[in-house]
Design brief:
Length: 823
């Protein structure tokens, strides 16, 4: 009897397994094809399921699948993809049991479709190595639609970051990753890289899941929750990570370049909510400026708003009657006259209190949400129109004379309890829309708002200020409108480490302007060690430098102890003097999506050490930063890549490349290294980016290898750099053998460009220098840098630092200038 029972159990299990397997449907044997090389090819299997392969330029191929009886979703069904007209052409060759499909561009996409059953394999540019291959290929399993791939030895990076920027290791190999709207401040980007030289972008807003070689499974897919969905993905060939990211951002949109002031120090009134009015702002800013501290951007958190001036009970308009801002026009003029720009915030819960709100603007069935009566349905054109009209009528209309350079869209990420079955204004379910909610906000405020109704010039261009919109959470493609920030994060060294990695993950997702509460958000705020290490050191070497949060431990330097103040001054000088370099990085991020803070895998994807070194990053092409995520006074492990030697930024000591070092870092001293051949363009210090002098260009040059840099400049405020090509490029080269720096004639122009420049050149790593020649003229030698500066031109050799300081006379920017260390 026992044997019979066991047999029955085995049979039951087998039936259950077979039944589960029977529910999974994948593409079957090839039947026929249609289409052409330009529009793409549609392949049918014997069950009438369809596979479409089409080109998006020469290096991207789109793959779509539809079950029998389904049509393919329209190209504009999802808006994450900005460009469906990238061109490209595919050449198809039938080879009997398989079909070869190749783009016509050299080094483009090369793939093979096996016929029986239909399975895809992608090859490297030389077509000699398989990069990616289907196992079971595209599968349907109930509501789940996924692509099953052959497990290989890839290392994977990407897919944005989780809520609160709680990013674990960057190398995702061996992990299951889901990037879905669940909690606060996620970056939802279903796009990843393999170190082998390809990327995958899954074009769907339904809940996603990526399994990167987990328990023998490599797959990516969605869960339609019973509300539809299709497999739709883009394969992007590199082989370089930078090329893949560039091509992905051509597909989904280039990151929107903010005003230059956004890269200065941003400080808020969060720590002083009871007395933060215009008088508090003016007093606090003037005190800091007088003490030598910079500030560029003031962040208004609640208190500026009419009504209670608190999180609850306020509305989006200036608190005039309450006396906090008796004359907003006068106040905003003071802000502008003092070299400042300003953020205004809108908390989701205050929407219902604000001008023009209607109950029908609410997402249905939002009773579960805190302040559920104030949940805007951004799929509705009426809501999007209301939102911008609110901003326009209450502050942005120039006729008011008020201010506002940036919008802070706060707390749209706390409505996750809404049921998936809720149908929104566009007729789609919340299951399909929730991952796209952040994108819709960004589109409403920028594309359908800021760009179209500035009323100054044609849409999105002209003398209108560039929009800077930051949202607590973001979706792929939203980078062309806005950026995100990491939410109300913990005030711990563990959270700091997560942000070092999340910043890199953000850059790998084409969101290069990473924005976070440097030092953490929550009460009581960062203690002194954390303030020094995170708010100041790491914060100043992240794209947006914004210490922010409540608590007794204030974020303003003068509210801290002497050690904190000293570090704040050091990193303020570093940040502002380095602004020409930083702003060039910001423009490069807009132009190609190259992150300002580069994960090591971007430049070293084929080096194993880079895959695990996610607690360090490159600040642009030349500076390696390894934040110390401890209280300090300890050793930090740093990998110095090969191919060059590295200078300690603080001491000038030179380290050999291709090694891991243990670097002793005192509290407040962030380990940073500059590579040989680096040219770092800098400015003289000022307490606002608006006041940085344009008539002096400082160049730090690190000897040991040849180097070059292209300095980018524009007016820093308007969209003319896009609409009228109003910008300038200055090519700078260093020849190590001759010890010469050449600054080429400037190319281009913009309003406010310097016509003449004086150059201060610091050569580091120079063994000796007895003579300096500039454009054929010998310079006089002096005994100190101060003497050179007092004289106006000349040079000094500092033997103990192996540094040569050179100061030239003024030259027209249209004239090449060569500075030579003669023998």
């Amino acid at each position: 009897m026992l044997k019979v029972i066991k047999l029955l159990i085995v049979l039951t299990v087998l039936v259950a397994v077979n039944s589960a397997q029977a529910d999974v449907v994948s593409l079957g044997d090839y039947s026929s094809f249609s289409g052409d090389s330009v529009s793409g090819y549609v392949f049918k299997d014997i069950n009438d399921n369809k596979l479409r392969v089409s080109a998006s330029g020469g290096y991207i191929v789109r793959v779509q699948a539809a079950r029998a009886g389904e049509g393919f979703l329209a190209d504009d069904h999802y808006e994450m993809v900005a460009n469906h007209d990238m061109g490209g052409e595919l050449v198809m060759t039938d080879r009997g049991d398989r079909i070869a499909i190749n783009s016509i561009e050299p080094g483009g996409v090369s793939l093979v479709l096996s016929k029986n059953p239909m399975r895809l394999t992608y090859y490297s540019a030389d077509r000699g190595r398989a990069l990616l291959a289907d196992r079971d290929g595209i599968c349907w399993d109930g509501n789940r639609i996924y692509t099953d791939l052959q497990v290989s030895n890839d290392h994977f990076f990407g897919v944005g970051h989780p809520e609160y920027s709680r990013q674990g290791k960057l190398d995702l190999t061996g992990t299951e990753v889901k990037r879905n709207y669940e909690k606060q401040a996620p970056l939802l980007v279903p796009f990843y890289f393999s170190h082998k030289g390809y990327g995958i972008f899954m074009n769907s807003t339904f809940e996603n899941c990526f399994r990167f070689n987990v328990d023998g499974e490599y797959s990516f897919g969605i869960d339609g929750k019973g509300f539809g969905g299709q497999m739709d993905y883009y394969f992007i060939v590199g082989p370089k990570v930078a090329d893949i990211l560039d091509r992905y951002s051509q597909l989904t949109g280039r990151p929107r370049l903010p005003q230059k002031s956004m890269f200065g120090l941003q400080l808020s009134d969060k720590g002083s909510p009871r007395d933060s009015d215009e008088q508090w702002w003016m007093k606090t800013i003037n005190e800091h400026r007088a003490a030598g501290y910079p500030i560029d951007h003031i962040v208004n958190d609640n208190r500026w708003r009419a009504g209670s001036g608190a999180w609850a009970g306020s509305r989006f308009e200036w608190a005039i009657d309450e006396g906090r801002y008796p004359d907003p026009a006068r106040w905003c003029k003071w802000v502008k006259d003092n070299g400042l720009t300003m953020t205004l915030d809108l908390n989701r819960n205050s929407c219902a209190n604000s001008w023009g709100w209607k109950d029908e603007y609410n997402i249905p069935n939002a009773e579960c949400v805190n302040y559920g009566h104030s949940t805007p349905d951004y799929t509705s054109q009426a809501v999007r129109d209301w939102n911008w009209e609110l901003f326009w009528n209450k502050t942005f209309d120039p006729a008011l004379g008020y201010g506002g350079d940036a919008l802070w869209m706060d707390e749209p990420d706390d409505i996750g309890c809404i049921a998936d079955s809720t149908i929104m204004a566009d007729g789609r379910s919340w299951a399909e829309n929730k991952n796209n909610y952040f994108f819709l906000i960004a589109k409403a405020v920028v594309e359908q708002g800021w760009d179209n109704e500035n009323k100054n010039d044609p849409p999105g261009i002209g003398d209108a200020k560039r929009p800077f919109v930051w949202v607590r959470g973001m979706t792929a493609g939203g980078q062309r409108y806005a950026t995100h920030w990491s939410g109300d994060v913990n005030v711990t060294f563990e959270a700091m480490a997560e942000h070092v990695r999340a910043m890199q993950a953000s850059g790998l997702a084409a969101f290069p302007y990473y924005n976070h509460d440097a030092g953490g958000f929550h009460n009581p705020g960062p203690v002194d060690d954390l303030y020094r290490q995170w708010s100041m050191a790491f914060g100043s070497f992240s794209p947006i430098w914004r210490p922010h949060g409540p608590g007794k431990y204030d974020r303003w330097p003068l509210k801290r102890n002497e050690e904190c103040q000293a570090d704040a001054m050091v990193y303020s000088h570093l940040r502002y003097e380095m602004m020409p370099y930083i702003y060039t990085l910001a423009w490069q991020a807009h132009d190609t999506a190259m992150p300002m803070a580069r994960a090591m895998v971007i430049d070293h994807q084929n080096e194993k050490e880079a895959w695990s070194r996610d607690m360090q990053y490159m600040w642009g092409p030349s500076i390696l930063v390894a934040p110390n995520c401890t209280p300090g006074n300890d050793d930090v492990s740093v990998w110095l890549p090969g191919g060059c030697d590295w200078y300690d930024l603080w001491t000038g000591k030179v380290y050999k490349g291709d090694q891991v070092i243990s670097y002793y870092a005192k509290t407040g001293v962030q380990p940073m290294f500059v590579k040989q051949g680096a040219i770092i363009p800098k400015s003289l210090y000022a307490t606002s980016t608006f006041w940085l002098p344009k008539d002096t260009l400082v160049l730090d040059v690190y000897a040991g290898q040849d180097g070059e840099f292209e300095l980018y400049e524009d007016d820093g405020v308007t969209e003319y750099f896009r609409s009228k090509d109003a910008c300038a490029i200055t090519g700078i080269k260093y020849d190590d053998k001759s010890g010469s720096v050449t600054v080429n004639a400037i190319k281009g122009s913009y309003d406010g460009i310097a016509q003449e420049r004086r150059y201060r050149v610091n050569f580091y790593g120079v063994e000796e220098a007895s003579q300096v020649i500039v454009n054929g003229e010998k310079l006089a030698g002096f005994g100190s840098i101060d003497e050179v500066i007092d004289n106006g031109t000349g040079f000094v050799y500092l033997a103990d630092k192996k540094q040569v300081f050179v100061m030239t006379k003024r030259y027209s920017v249209k004239v090449p200038v060569s500075v030579n260390l003669a023998d």
